[in-house]
Amino acid sequence: MNETYDIAIVGATGSVGREILQILEQRKFPINNLYLLASEKSKGSKIEFDNQEIIVDDLSNFDFSKTQISLFSPGSNVSSKFAPLAAEKGSLVIDNTSYFRMHNDVPLIVPEVNAEVLDEYFEKKLNYLFGFTDKSDLTISESSILDFHLAHRTDPEFSFEPNVDTPKFIWQYLSASNLLFNK
Question: What is the residue-wise DSSP string for the chain?
Answer without folding.
Answer: ----EEEEEETTTSHHHHHHHHHHHHTT--EEEEEEEE-GGGTT-EEEETTEEEEPEEGGG--GGG-SEEEE-S-HHHHHHHHHHHHHTTPEEEE-SSTTTT-TTS----HHHHTHHHHHHHHHHHHHHTTS---TT----GGGHHHHHHHHHH-TT------TTS-HHHHHHHHHTT-TT--
